Amino acid sequence: MSDPVRITNPGAESLGYDSDGHEIMAVDIYVNPPRVDVFHGTPPAWSSFGNKTIWGGNEWVDDSPTRSDIEKRDKEITAYKNTLSAQQK
């Protein structure tokens, strides 16, 4: 069973307006966690994201990922990939 897809909207960018005058916002979609080749290790824990999304509701709980959480996680993933790359050389 695959993990849930998380849709976030921190600092969303406006894409314009529809014919009814509603603003259309950009949405970032993140799949939690990433799939990794088991022969090359396991990624660091996804503790910075948590799984406390209210599905079916119209609001996010206070500890949903923020832009800084996403940037921090991106740095962790990049560092992990660099470590794997260095080990393979």
From TrEMBL:
GO cellular component: membrane
GO-annotated molecular function: pore-forming activity
GO biological process, one term: killing of cells of another organism
InterPro entries: Channel_colicin_N_sf
Name the UniProt record assigns to this protein: Colicin
